[in-house]
TrEMBL record:
Cofactor names: Zn(2+)
NCBIfam families on file: priA
InterPro entries tied to this protein: DEAD/DEAH_box_helicase_dom, Helicase_ATP-bd, Helicase_C-like, P-loop_NTPase, PriA, PriA_3primeBD, PriA_3primeBD_sf, PriA_C
CDD domains: DEXHc_priA (cd17929), SF2_C_priA (cd18804)
Reactions listed under catalytic activity: Couples ATP hydrolysis with the unwinding of duplex DNA by translocating in the 3'-5' direction; ATP + H2O = ADP + phosphate + H(+)
Domain Helicase ATP-binding stretches: 302-469
Its EC number(s): 5.6.2.4
Protein known as: Replication restart protein PriA
Lineage: Bacteria, Pseudomonadati, Bacteroidota, Chitinophagia, Chitinophagales
Primary gene name: priA
Source organism per UniProt: Flavihumibacter petaseus NBRC 106054
Length: 826
DNA sequence: AGCACGCCGACT
DNA sequence: GTCGGCGTGCTC
């Protein structure tokens, strides 16, 4: 019966496991017989890596090929009974690691909620073999040894409580040497279900009669308890169920009074597991009609989706793109599919959420950076089971384990915040979403008023479908744009002008009409700093090649690159003078001068410094919506995801700061930004006005913005991109080399470039030192590669980069040079 | 990412 | 003479 047949599948013996680390390749563990028929890809396993470090890894593959080069260690445990993700996630992670040149472990690290990752905790075990003779121990060692003898094991935190927390490690070290104890690592499950105590009426009063009996015969004693009981009965009637905390806070009773009722067996306490994500009724209400223009666009999209996986919806600001999204989402829902709606984090405002909740209620879940780890685990499960139908989230929501994804919407698709900059994986959420969708045969809708040139190119190539909305909703005109030439204008103190007379006049008029004003200030290059009045010296960071930003609120200097905080400078390091001034050209300074000039207007500031936490942001938006603020000054935040009905005037205070960057995307960014900003002006009722202050009024971008002419802009920009060999006509890869010695990075980068030259010499730019050439005491060199659009060449180049990086690390002088590839840098 | 091993400087 | 710094390499 059980003889082995020649074609019988061999038993699965090994598991390729992903570990949340930047390992160069995936590792393999052996599955002990008792786990072999339970293990499945996507389940977490407990494994030991190295001496005794434990990790929760994820099984990627099961196989029976014994590795030749090493003897795999055994998997200790299966941590899940069912996989925590779908097969698509593993494929998605693999693609991302390959495409963005990082390890699958790094992708896993970014993808999984922290509580799935489990941290290991060091445990001290008593070594029975050492015996109980502690005479050779000093006082502190003795204390720990005694405790260990009794408890047999201690965690580090417990040892810290036993001793003076400052020096537990040396003591543990000595105990280890004297063999009194052993260490072991234990995996700690950090996800905790949320429990809440509910209050119930004791079953002995389960009929009205018995209850009435109890109330009628209440003794004169304990009137407070009677009061509490009545409060309970009221709450129970109105809310259905009563939690302990709600009862106590609403009745104002004390915990002791409740305890009294419980001990008399009148009320009962019961602990129940509850859901952290409050659920709303899950009904769909689509109760609006589309304009003819919207209907046409919707039909176009539906038509194109029959042939194309990705469509672009280009619609001018307030053309009602969201209504089309809602229609498509509803359609996906009707087909039993899930929807991922991605937008830039900063645009994920209460206003946007409220608007979608109106239509989809409890079908929508939100995923953003303010979520805590426990909430993320619960959301993960809801998405995996398919219970959550629509996910509204930022970049990282592409990692959620969709069961049956039917539609992905990437709103504000051009936004650069979809690209993750710092820790690997340096992925673009929009592009990753397109790939993810392909795994589910789902459709992707990219939406923007000012599409990225990459997406526009894909439309022109026929790869993406297109629908356009060229007029604003409800027949509002596009705002009128005025260019204010500030050349020659100077403030009394000779500093650059903040408010031109023209803008001041426009503000006055707008305020007179009881309308609101938004003033936009690009933050870059406008951070407050300290400067010596005698010699112009500016304090710099000790570890980075940047000047320090002055934070007025905390009266501190801060390095925005490494985060180091310094006290304000009093003595100039260059000339010894004591004459320091704070230059603050930021929104703060603008706010000050507005208050001065418009003393009766209510002015508020919205930037990272003024907004602490999401709630302050939402609160400020509400105040502005309710017209309790007249003038709102801010950075990017004021233009994303917000619609205000009474804004009549938008001022762009310094367009030169937007247009003056030395980077090939300046024009694209400038156009996008100004178009987005001006879109805030003129909603209900009349046409809005936008005033752009510049010293370069003939800049071509301004003309396109003035005409709201995306297509002409795109055409012009495309031809210059083509001419200079930039995306979308090429693919970029940026390599950063970092090392603590300037000469070493330089040599390494040059060496690397020299090795690349035979195959890719024509495409290299640099190596060169970036503008900020030292961060955290590491010198930096950048090498840019501009590849023609050719998938084979791209792959070849990536392979070559990985090979040469390994090769570089074999050269003794370059061993510790860090090489970071950035694919499709922004 | 940890962690151990190993080779050079500032102390008992 | 030793303690300890961190540079380097390895972990299935």
């Amino acid at each position: 019966m059980n003889e082995s047949l020649p074609f019988e599948p061999s038993p699965v013996l090994f598991a390729e496991v992903l570990i949340p680390l930047a390992l160069p390749r995936n590792f393999t563990w052996a599955l002990p017989p008792e786990l072999q028929d339970k293990a499945m890809p996507g389940m977490r396993v407990e494994v030991v890596l190295g001496r005794n470090k434990k990790y929760a890894g994820i099984i990627k593959k099961l196989h029976d090929k014994k590795p030749a080069a090493f003897d795999p260690k055994p998997v200790l445990n299966l941590l899940d009974e069912t996989p925590i993700l779908h097969a698509q996630q593993l494929l998605f992670w693999e693609w991302m690691a390959h495409y963005y040149l990082c390890s699958e472990g790094e992708v896993m690290q970014a993808a999984l909620p922290t509580h799935f990752k489990l941290s290991s905790e060091t445990i001290l075990l008593f070594n029975d073999a050492a015996g109980e003779d502690f005479s050779h121990l000093d006082d502190e060692e003795f204390v720990v040894a005694e405790a260990l003898l009794i408890k047999k094991e201690l965690r580090i935190t417990e040892v810290q409580q036993l001793l003076d927390a400052s020096h537990v490690y040396p003591v543990i070290q000595r105990l280890l040497e004297k063999k009194v104890c052993l260490v072991w690592e234990e995996l700690k499950q950090t996800y905790k279900e949320k429990k809440e105590t509910f209050i119930l009426l004791h079953p002995q009063y389960n009929t009205d009669e018995k209850l009435a009996d109890l109330l009628n015969n209440w003794t004169a004693k304990a009137p407070k308890q009677l009061e509490l009981l009545l409060a309970y009965l009221h709450l129970e009637k109105t809310e259905g169920e009563v939690t302990k905390s709600a009862l106590l806070s609403k009745s104002g009773a004390s915990a002791d009074q409740l305890k009294g009722l419980v001990s008399k067996a009148i009320l009962l306490e019961e602990k129940r597991t509850v859901d952290r994500l409050k659920s709303l009724p899950a009904n769909v209400s689509i109760n609006f009609t589309l304009t003819p223009a919207q209907e046409t666009a919707l039909a176009q999209l539906q038509d194109q989706f029959s042939q194309k996986a990705v469509c672009l919806l280009q619609g001018v600001t307030s053309s009602g793109k969201t209504l089309l999204y809602i229609r498509l989402m509803e359609e996906a829902l009707r087909n039993g599919k899930q929807v991922l709606y991605m937008l830039p984090e900063i645009a994920l405002t209460a206003q946007v959420i409220r608007r979608l909740r109106e239509h989809f209620g409890g079908h929508i879940v939100i995923y953003h950076s303010k979520f805590n780890a426990n909430e993320r685990v619960e959301l993960w499960h809801k998405v995996k089971s398919g219970e959550a139908k629509i996910v509204l989230g930022a970049r990282s929501s592409v990692f959620l384990p969709f069961r049956d994804l039917g539609l992905v919407i990437v709103d504000e698709e051009h936004d650069s915040s979809f690209k993750q900059q710092d820790p690997a994986p340096r992925y673009n959420g929009r592009d990753a979403a397109v790939f993810l969708a392909s795994l589910y045969q789902a459709k992707v809708l990219l939406g923007s008023a000012t599409p990225s040139l990459e997406s526009w190119y894909n439309v022109k190539q026929g790869k993406y479908g297109l629908a356009q909305l060229t007029e604003r909703y409800a027949g509002i005109d596009m705002p009128q744009i005025g260019i204010v030439d500030t050349t020659g204008l100077r403030q009394a103190d000779k500093s650059r002008v903040i408010l031109s007379p023209a803008l001041e006049e426009a503000i006055t008029q707008t305020l007179q009409k009881n309308k609101q004003v938004i003033l936009f200030q690009n933050r870059r290059g406008y951070s407050p700093y300290q400067v010596c009045q005698s010699c112009g010296w500016i304090p710099h960071c000790k570890h980075c090649d940047v000047s320090l930003t002055f934070h007025k609120l905390h009266n501190k200097l801060v390095c925005h690159y490494c985060g180091t905080i310094y006290p304000p400078v009093v003595i100039c390091e260059a000339c010894g003078n004591h004459d320091f001034q704070q230059q603050n050209f930021g929104t703060e300074r603008i706010e000050e001068s507005l208050v001065e000039r418009f003393p009766h207007a209510k002015v508020a500031r919205m930037d990272i410094d003024a907004i602490k936490g999401k709630h302050a942001h939402d609160a400020l938006i509400q105040l502005f919506e309710q017209q309790r603020i007249d003038i709102l000054v801010g950075t990017q935040m004021v233009v994303k995801g917000l619609d205000f009905d009474h804004v009549q005037l938008v001022g762009i205070l310094d367009a030169d700061a937007i247009m003056g960057f030395a980077d090939f995307r300046v024009n694209e960014r400038a156009f996008q930004l100004m178009e987005q900003v001006s879109g805030r002006s003129g909603r209900k009722g009349e046409q809005g006005l936008v005033l752009v202050q510049t010293r370069n009024p003939r800049h071509p971008v301004l003309a396109w913005v003035k005409a709201h002419d995306f297509e002409t802009f795109a055409q012009a920009e495309m031809s210059s991109r083509q001419q200079f060999g930039y995306p979308p006509f090429t693919r970029l890869i940026q390599l950063s080399f970092k090392h603590k010695t300037a000469d070493v990075v330089q040599a390494a980068a040059r060496q690397f470039a020299a090795w690349m030259t035979p195959n890719f010499g024509a495409y290299l730019v640099g190596p060169a030192a970036p503008v900020v050439n030292r961060v955290r005491n590491q010198y930096i060199m950048d090498l840019l590669i501009k590849l023609p659009r050719d998938l084979h060449l791209l792959q070849q180049c990536k392979d070559q980069i990985q090979l040469l990086t390994a090769h570089l690390h074999q050269q003794p002088p370059f061993k510790s040079v860090i090489v970071t590839p950035d694919i499709d840098p922004i």
